[in-house]
Write the structure tokens for this entry.
Amino acid sequence: MIKPIKPISAFAGLFLLAGCANKAPPADYTALKLENPHSILVVPAVNRSTEVTAPNYYLTTIPVPIVERGYYVFPINMVKRVLEDDGLSDADLVFQGDPTRLGEMFGADAILYVTIERWDARYLVISTTVTVDFSYVLKSGKTGETLWKNQVHLEYTPQTASAGNPIADLVVMAVQAALTKASPDYTPLAITANATAINTPDHGLLPGPRNPQYKAGQ
Amino acid sequence: MIRIVPVLKIGIILLCTGFVAGCAPKTQYTWGDYGPALYSLYSGDKDLDATALKLQKIIEKGEVKGTVPPGIYAEYGYILLSLGKSGEAITFFQKEKQLYPESTVFMDRMIAAAKIPTAKPSAQIDRPELLAAKDSSHDQTN
């Protein structure tokens, strides 16, 4: 829990998180409810960003929120390596391929395709802005039908050296490291973005079968 | 000010769900250093024994409370398989299958693959071209 002693510093970081959770009308959950997937296969992310390391680092952030939402998620690294060994290392090809074949191959009820639209830091004169932007598509492993979609865009502009706030410090460190390191680490921001995409009411994933809030036969 | 408060509350929930350092989130499962372990792997850390050890720790903690997360037994089994320990790998694939029956199809394939002495650690799909789109420029070089 964030310590209540420092409410302002904790929130300062948040204010600078200019986030767009989906501003569209509430999602239509008809297909998702009907299909009622119990297991989700997350395939390696399609990369539209300028950072070649983004897909691998992104992958490390995605299983936890989906499992905690109440779904079985297939082992992330194992799936990635098995796909590679079977000639499916090209994320774009997998994205365009038939989800039902993957459903059959792994016994997966649904396949989650994530596209990394942005994963970068822009260095301006007086400030630096870190941006992540992900779009998500969940397709049925049985019919190939789209069950759920979402998109999240998060920009972070650290304003203080240390706000005494964990996420501000982490992102500041990441940004500073980015100036000297070849592979910037935006995983803390990615974690927040995923949490937003998956848990926000009316746009996130519905609670899954392993979630106490799951409503069977809805 | 009043309008800001609900936004901040959502923010806290999000941050805590985001597993940020300094925040102790309530999770259903015991994840330990899973994210960082994978991160290390993808940062070029070739030490599979170290990765195995990290996964082993997660398993040990999880088994105490019965909260080993989905996929962890299997991930561990896969690392063992990559280290040539197919017998042990099979044990963990079976544990995954037992704890999470959703994994049955995949685990059965991997157990079968692990039993073949010279097989690569893969699901050895017979017809990979079925899985790709029209572009079939991938060569299966074995």
